[in-house]
Amino acid sequence: MAHVDPSLDPVPILSPPPDLPRRAPHDPTRPTPWVLLALMILLGFVVVQGRTLWLEWTSLRVENTRAQEAIVVGYYNINPNPSYAQKPEPWFHDEGPDTLLWSGWKEGVGHGWFRVGRGEVDRERLSLPMGRDVVQAIDYPIVEVNGGKIWGRIPGESSVVGQELGGVASVYPLQVLDKVQIVNDQVEGRAFLVVCNPKIARTQAVAIYDPVMDGHRLTMGMSGYDHDDRPLLYDRGTESLWVQQGDVLNAIAGAHKGARLRKIGQPSPTSWVDWCSHHPKSRLVVGADRSRTRPAL
């Protein structure tokens, strides 16, 4: 029998450790949560920017198509009259009982101003000035009736607006109205005022007004300002300022303040081919005669 020395401690018998959950081996091809988050952020950015780029590209295509069509069609004298004059500071200020708004620079004359009653115009509701008549209204329309050189060049899908005026079916290409924004028209001896706001929906962009007030015809030009994103017009007789409000053209400042011109039509766009099929003998406005002196009414 083996002899055991009692002075020695017995060797403890250890039980096997309990089973511990095993960690799955790292998969280098599996992205971490931080990588997934970064990818989601990147994807969101691409989606937002992609939509913006798509809208810009679509808009560019539309504008390019319009420009190409305008070149091919050859409407007369509808381009803006650009001005490189720098607006003075301040371009909007009070002077005695009046408020002055810069209206542009004229060679040999200097800075021009719209002068209205003090406080009649809120500067916060105005865009920055562009200059009077940079966008050139049509004062003497060039027209074709029942066919003509321009008539035959207009693509069938081009948008136009038309209405019977003075007993005559009158039609205006939107390419023309977008450029000039105002047509001081006259049909069968009766005056009409056509106003276009290219910044709003096409179905509401064009309105036709009766410009006769107290038996006197008013002709309008572009002031070079927007008022609450609507074109701010001026009448050539008193330089009062007018803006579209509801169903009227309202004088908000100047000698005619408070006067209103009644809307007599708001034609919706249609295609040129569709218009011609229903009104083959229309009066078509194809541009402006700039050789005649602008009326001072």
What does it look like?
The chain is an alpha+beta fold. Among the domains are: 42-73; 136-288, no CATH class. Helices cover 19% and strands 33% of the residues. It contains 3 helices and 18 strands. It has helices at residues 33-73, 174-180, 272-278, and strands at residues 92-95, 98-106, 110-117, 141-145, 159-165, 168-173, 182-187, 190-196, 206-209, 212-213, 216-217, 220-227, 230-235, 241-245, 248-253, 260-265, 270-271, 283-288. The strands form 4 sheets. An 8-stranded antiparallel beta sheet has the order 7-8-9-16-15-14-13-12. It has a 5-stranded mixed beta sheet with strand order 4-18-6-5-17. The radius of gyration is 35 Å and the shape is globular. The relative contact order is 0.15.
How would you describe this structure in keywords?
single chain; alpha+beta; eight-stranded antiparallel β-sheet; five-stranded mixed β-sheet; 18 strands
**Average pLDDT figure:** 88
Helical proportion, percent range:
10-25%
Give the topology string: H per helix, E per strand. Answer: HEEEEEEHEEEEEEEEEEEHE
Global Rg: 35 Å
The class by helix and strand makeup works out as alpha+beta
Shape: globular
Note the beta-strand portion: 25-35%
Strand order of the largest sheet: 7-8-9-16-15-14-13-12
Give the count of helical stretches.
Answer: 3
Strand count, sense and barrel status of the largest sheet are: 8 strands, antiparallel
Terminal Cα span: 139 Å
What's the total number of strands?
Answer: 18
Which ranges are low-confidence, i.e. pLDDT below 50, for 5 or more consecutive residues?
none
